[in-house]
Specification:
heterodimer; A: mainly beta; 1 helix; 3 strands; 6% helix; B: 189 residues; Rossmann fold; 8 strands; 37% helix; globular
Chain lengths: 67, 189
């Protein structure tokens, strides 16, 4: 992951570490356009702050091939 | 690793049933966790989490429970075995969170009146915990004949459980430290 796609901790302001992906099948029921066609659900990234331990989820951006 | 924050390991008492033998077990485990240097703990009694049964999942999150689990590095779940499985209300509580669990350690203490010490509830709970994103350790607590293990005042009668839980907690704390380091420092890509 490039540095400009890293999340910033809303509490500490430091860059967070992206350490997991999770498929959300339930959210996909309400947002079909966001479904990854290969994985069958919406892919969410888990990011954790190395300073305070806070974890945040965000939807994975579509691959652009530009990074 | 950020060592300025203590490892936080709450103990979840996973039943609301009146006369629950698991309460003595949970309090015993809580006391053993609290003896560990550099580890904080507290008891989460699911009886005290006011969840609606008119809905389920993240829609009915309890803020206090979510904040506690979000801060946790690991969980101990103390659960009785009801009809070979886990209490429905324990599952109801666990299902209200998701991101709070990802890449955190969990150990399970099974409690039963019979001789198997909750072995079957543990086996049935493991796939649930895995899907939630938790990482299970390979030590379990097995409390067989639970109604005979404690005096009326909650004092443990069989001291062999102290050594067993010591091994269980060593493994859990190790896993909690490794996973905290991983969450905060090891990138997926």
């Amino acid at each position: 992951m490039s540095e400009n796609r890293k999340m910033t901790c809303p509490d500490c302001g430091v860059l967070m570490n992206h350490h997991a992906l999770k498929i959300d099948y339930t959210a996909a029921l309400d947002d079909a356009e966001a479904i990854d066609p290969d994985l069958g659900g919406i892919v969410e990234e888990a990011h954790t702050c190395p300073a305070c331990g806070k974890t945040q989820l965000r939807r994975q951006a579509a691959e652009t091939g530009n990074e | 690793m950020n060592t300025s924050r203590p490892i936080f390991i709450p103990v979840i008492l996973g039943t609301t049933r009146q006369g629950r033998a698991s309460e003595n077990v949970a309090k015993f485990v809580l006391e053993e966790v609290s003896k560990r240097e550099g580890v904080e703990t507290l008891l989460i009694d699911i009886r005290e989490i006011p969840l609606s049964t008119l809905d389920a999942g993240e829609a009915i999150k309890d803020a206090k429970f979510s904040e506690t689990v979000a801060r946790a590095d690991a969980l101990v779940i103390v659960t009785p075995e009801y009809n070979h499985s886990y209490p429905g209300l324990l599952k109801h509580v666990l299902d209200t969170n998701l991101k709070e669990y990802i890449h955190k350690a969990v150990g399970v203490c099974g409690v039963s009146a019979g001789v198997f010490g909750g072995a079957r509830v543990i086996q049935n709970l493991l796939p649930v915990l895995r899907e939630l994103g938790l990482v299970t350790i390979f030590w379990d607590g097995n409390f067989a004949g639970a109604h005979k293990l404690f005096e009326a005042d909650g004092k443990l009668l069989d001291q062999s459980y102290v050594k067993r839980i010591d091994q269980f907690l060593k493994e859990l704390i190790w896993m909690a430290k490794v996973l905290r380091y991983g969450r905060e420092n090891i990138s997926l890509e």
